[in-house]
Specification:
Elements: E1 4-8, E2 48-50, E3 63-75, E4 80-90, H1 96-99, E5 114-115, E6 122-123, E7 129-131, E8 134-137, H2 139-146, H3 152-163
Antiparallel strand pairs: 1-3, 2-4, 3-4, 5-6, 7-8
Length: 164
């Protein structure tokens, strides 16, 4: 059996749909109710979207759930859409540090050259990561952020203050 995952915002909303899933979430250790069946599904348009474990960093958000899908399904490069879905359980190990992990860039696979948004270091397409609101972050700045030493901007301010 394939395990699927679904991210929700801190308010239990779908990031793209804005749908409030609160009444369908697991309660007292039991899976939530099945969401209404959607007859005609289409990737990125209609249906219940979820991802595999290998795809979760593409969709990272505040709350992570294991979900069950049934009915007709369609698979894309980084997601699956299905006619029906229910939430099985919340992944309790998902936390703020997980959200700091680098995420792949969605730039259509174009080969471009970039500069780190923080330190302006020149980056190749294989040398950067995307961290939430930062478009491109080099490995040095990313390490600072990932390990909880503050955001790259905070570290630059701290460095500049110490250099005065």
């Amino acid at each position: 059996m394939t395990t699927y995952y679904k991210f929700l915002t801190s308010d239990n909303l779908g990031e793209y749909s804005g749908f409030d899933y609160t009444e369908y979430l697991p309660k007292r250790g039991k899976p939530g109710a099945w969401l209404p069946k959607i007859e005609e599904i289409e990737l990125c348009a209609r249906g219940y979207h979820a991802c595999l474990k290998s795809e979760i960093m593409n969709w990272a958000n505040d709350n992570l759930y294991i979900v069950e899908l049934r009915g007709k399904k369609e698979k894309d490069d980084d997601k699956t859409v299905a006619q029906e879905m229910r939430f099985i359980k919340k992944v309790t190990g998902w936390n703020e540090k997980n959200l700091r992990l680098p995420r792949p860039r969605r730039d259509g696979g174009r080969m471009n050259w970039f500069y780190c948004d923080n330190c302006k270091h020149h980056l190749s397409p294989y040398d950067y990561a995307s961290f939430g609101s930062w478009s491109y972050v080099c490995p040095d700045c990313g390490f600072i952020y990932l390990h909880g030493y503050g955001t790259p901007e905070e570290q630059v301010k701290k460095f500049n203050k110490e250099a005065e």
